[in-house]
């Protein structure tokens, strides 16, 4: 059985704050997620910036229309 992957969810409202946390935690995670608020506030540029910052990580863009549960 393969090991589970650890995902960092960046539920930030600014790219600057998200990138600060990525800098601190990227070596400890497998997946970097641009959360809905980050994507809506910063657009596709946030995903591109995270890809540049973490070229060897899986990048997930969480573009939800509704976040209810």
TrEMBL record:
Residues 4-69 form the Orotidine 5'-phosphate decarboxylase domain. The keyword Acyltransferase does not apply. Pfam families: OMPdecase. The keyword Iron-sulfur does not apply. Its EC number is 4.1.1.85. Keywords: Lyase. GO terms for molecular function: 3-dehydro-L-gulonate-6-phosphate decarboxylase activity; orotidine-5'-phosphate decarboxylase activity. It is an enzyme of class 4 (lyase). It comes from the Bacteria. GO terms for biological process: 'de novo' pyrimidine nucleobase biosynthetic process; L-ascorbic acid catabolic process. PANTHER family: 3-KETO-L-GULONATE-6-PHOSPHATE DECARBOXYLASE SGBH-RELATED. This is 3-keto-L-gulonate-6-phosphate decarboxylase. It comes from Escherichia coli. The gene is sgbH_2.
């Amino acid at each position: 059985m393969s090991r589970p992957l650890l995902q960092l969810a960046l539920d930030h409202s600014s790219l600057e704050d998200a990138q600060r946390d990525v800098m601190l935690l990227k070596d400890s995670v497998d997946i970097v997620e641009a959360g809905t608020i980050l994507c809506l506030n910063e657009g596709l540029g946030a995903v591109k910036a995270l890809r540049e910052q973490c070229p060897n990580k899986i990048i997930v863009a969480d573009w939800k229309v509704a976040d209810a549960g």
